[in-house]
Amino acid sequence: MADLANRTLPLSGFHGGSGAASLSVAAPATRISLRAKPDAVSALSGALGLSLPTKPKTSASANGRHALWLGPDEWLVIDENEADLMAAVALSGVLHSATDISHRNTAILVKGRGADVAVNGGCPQDLSLTAFPVGACSRTVLAKAEIVLLRTAEDAFRVECWRSFAPYVSALLNEAAEDAGN
Amino acid sequence: MLLIYCPYCEEERSELEFRQAGDAHIARPTNMTEMTDEEFEAFFFLRDNVKGLTFERWRHLNGCGRFFNAARDTVSDKFLTTYKAGLPKPDLSTLRPATEATVETYEATESDAK
Ligand SMILES: [Zn+2]
């Protein structure tokens, strides 16, 4: 009889930050890396139940599902209800490439009046509300780690990183959150 | 920190998100099997290393992931323009950096080197 390994969430139970910027681990989610040409966008949008954004740095969200523009032919799709995204896009009937990356990534939620300051502790992007409004998203860097940043509210960000980078990203955000104030 | 305009993201982003990726507009040979070793060496290895205006490939690695081209001054590090991959070289006459835009270099101010 085979022994089954238990899947563990990176940073399970992690809480940190400061009064100005609290840090917590996002719940498990399903994720796909989706690549497709422009002529497949509308069928894939129909299959996913939300409009894949085609404008740089924008996202679309509906019912706990998020589609983030990463590049002209590339999206990160996240489903917080752990729906089967691979099966959903397979029904689109159009040419595309989808890779299940549910467990490659993990996410840290940064929240509070100093959330932007905490993220800017390692990220060079302009996070003012004019340049990076609610719903804006981008692949970028947090110091030496690649992240995907999504602004979920004026004072809240979702920071997606590769699970092997989670200890580094969380430690760096923790330092930056303390610098953001109490 | 340098800001580089990505023609795909349509905005300026930090240099930390980019990687330089060698010379742009290198014509790939169509008859590689018939080339001499010297011809192959010239295509594959030999680059001009221009002082001044140069055309380079860049990749928005930690951004949209796209390769694009840039006209850059190697003395001042100033990006004159960036444009999508596949587009022809932009008109040189409109890209010459203004003399006063050139930053002071060690060579120009301190050394006797020509
Ligand atoms: Zn870009």
Automatic annotation (TrEMBL), chain A:
One of its GO terms (molecular function) is sarcosine oxidase activity. It comes from the Bacteria. Its EC number is 1.5.3.1. It holds the Pfam family SoxG. Keywords: Oxidoreductase. The keyword Oxidoreductase applies. It is an enzyme of class 1 (oxidoreductase). InterPro entries: SoxG, SoxG_het, TrmE/GcvT-like. This is Sarcosine oxidase subunit gamma. The lineage of its organism: Bacteria, Pseudomonadati, Pseudomonadota, Alphaproteobacteria, Hyphomicrobiales.
From TrEMBL, chain B:
Signal peptide: none annotated. It is an enzyme of class 1 (oxidoreductase). Keywords: Oxidoreductase. Gene3D superfamilies: Folate-binding superfamily. It comes from Rhizobium herbae. GO terms for molecular function: sarcosine oxidase activity. Its EC number is 1.5.3.1. This is Sarcosine oxidase subunit delta. It comes from the Bacteria.
